[in-house]
Amino acid sequence: MADVGEVLMSVLSTIRVPKPGDRVHKDECALSFSSPDNEGGLYVCMNSFLGFGSQYVDRHHARTGQRAYLHITRTRKTKEEDINTGSGHPPKKKPTRLAIGIEGGFDVEQEQYEEDIKVVILPDRQEVTSEDLTTMPDVVKERVSLSMAGIMAADSVSHTLQVQQWDGEVRQESRHAADLKQLDNGVKIPPSGWRCDVCDLQENIWMNLTDGKVLCGRRYFDGTGGNNHALLHFQQTGYPLAVKLGTITPGGADVYSYDEDDMVLDSKLPEHLAHFGINMMTMEKTERTMTELEIAVNQRVGEWEVIQESGTTLRPLFGPGLTGMKNLGNSCYLNSVMQVLFTVPDFQSKSVPFFFLIAPHAPVPSIFAVDLQTLTFNSENVLCLILNQIGIAPQMFKALVGRGHPEFSTNRQQDAQEFLLHFINMVERNCRSGANPSEAFRFLVEERIVCQESQKAKYTQRVDYMVQLPVPMDQATNTDYLLEAERRREEGDSAAPTVRAQIPFTACMAALSEPEILTDFWSSAVQAKTTATKTTRFASFPDHLVIQIKKFTFGLDWVPKKLDVSIDVPDTLDLSGLRATGQQPGEELLPEVAPPSLVTPDVEVKAPVLDDSTVSQLCEMGFPLEACKKAVYYTGNTGIDAAMNWIMGHMDDPDFSAPLVLPGCSSGPGTTPTESVSEEHLATIVSMGFSRDQATKALRATSNVLDRAVDWIFSHLDDLESMDVSEGGRSAAESEGRDPPPGPRVRDGPGKYELFAFVSHMGTSTMCGHYVCHIKKDQQWVIFNDQKVCASEKPPKDLGYLYFYRRVAE
Questions:
Q1: Is 199 annotated as a binding residue?
Q2: pLDDT for 404-431, tens place per residue?
Q3: Which of 123, 367, 416, 648 has the most CB atoms around its CB within 10 Å?
Q4: Is 125 annotated as a binding residue?
């Protein structure tokens, strides 16, 4: 073996010193969850600054030729509090400030470590310590020492992605405060007894500091709060500042700037209040400030006892498959979903090739296939065998699966159901030519539409990955208690109990399986619009079945809300009675005749005139602009109610947010049906297993943009299959014995299942709150709450959001 000094001299030109802006991955392996804390430590390439676990560093060396790596091992220091408390979770001070990582705010756990570093030269793994460098030539000693120091001093990528300190109470002076215009309209505000001038609401009352108008505040996601009258007043007048009347004290008050869209400071607040007869020095606080409201919400979400199984002593668990995942900032939705997915054998055993940009300084390094087996937490290299369960921090994984996505690339809270479908979509995209773990969830749905006038039927099939189960609130078994509690609340009874609706699971399944009435169905048999019924059944049963409880809906006033329901979800499920039967003996099919064209041939299609006010109202509710345009167009400008009904009926459409395309127009902006598409893009999509015709259709539908075309093609798999598939579900190629066209393959078997996991949501909206999951392991229910993993004593199976079943072997 060559002298280590000579070897180091030979690779000196490849050793770099980190510069400002270089991304140093020194906390986590680029290809797994390995970190310096794990056995074997982490190897940081001294050229690209990518980190690799001991099981991957040789592969990186073989692929790139890089030889010099900084080997980092880290040992956690024992905290005094860990010694004094058996649980490792001492009582924490109640937060008094809306902040993170500063005095009075929410505590951020900061671990202390002892680190050991040395240079390792591959392939022989020759080691060089800092002491060894002192005996080497100055040019070697200087370059290597600077590189080592630079790597250790640099902020890691994971550090820059995390919020270490944040103060939500630091407010800026409003730009409107100094020169605020106040009207001399004679308005004087009493010191108490305020009501909204529009709706008489007595809580969450704000006064506009320009004209003294007293109005209610914003409506919250759960329907409480106000009726948005203060906001509407700003939109009509442009008067920017408002003060929350119940928060005025001699020390200040809550002031909001609608123009700046934030809580602000008003240095002239005493003067502005005096203009309307309010003496700030005599006022007392009668309502919680916005900061106090936010602290209360965050504290409820963050407390282990309140989130789940309150009042129960939970026994921490450790070992293979029982490793928690750190919350990276509203990443509990990802943690809960991935913990469940990696109990599915298909995902445990699969290396899924996520092929992304291969570059030494790519924002998300993925030079090799991402080995999903390393994410199952079953490897001794990955397990955190530390008695107080630190958990793993999936920064690289989160960055990888969220890259380029407008929501999942952020630190905002997300819908677990949407993330699950997004992840399955990524797996589908990258497993066209090999084993595909998402097949465990994939199944076919048969839709049977029967024209009520001709009694002829039409059969179609589509691919799905989960069952969305409706919640029939009118089937509650405790209706009397619900009505009584509602009556007491309306009468102002503060002691009125909170009653949760009890919904039978059988009622949910009945609502799913009952025929849907289609009142505007165009029948090819009678050549006219008529009434039809649509029945949905399983054309195949997957190995693993996901059921989503549709808890998130809209009230009568179109305000998003979460249904507070308890559903007796069973441990075992038999769906055999919902299997599709296909065309019945003697049943006639609707003829394949296209409906009459809505556009006269050779006549230029002009853009429709849409009701801007209806479009604006829909957008204000949070729906995508293009979806709002389509809702108004397809309901003929008949008003907000009709448009809202259209949106509710089409929210699950794959092209819900796609641009409005008029009949007779091109399939996408900037393209025509005959416009040529990029041969390079065609080749890329065809290489993924799709036909040339399918690739062409996807590119024309997305203006020849490759990334959008790939997303489009995976959102329209059922449409693409119908290009070659007949009503009977078999293609002409299959009937003639040829190879079938590429497309989704489904597994099938008995429709009997057992519950093995469920994901629960706490909060009033999918965009806030907290997720945890329960998984059944060795006949024991286990609760995963981010990095905390414990034996579950009272699994709340009736309060879940996503339920996961696996087929029972007969």
A1: yes
A2: 777 887 777 788 999 999 999 888 877 7
A3: 416
A4: no
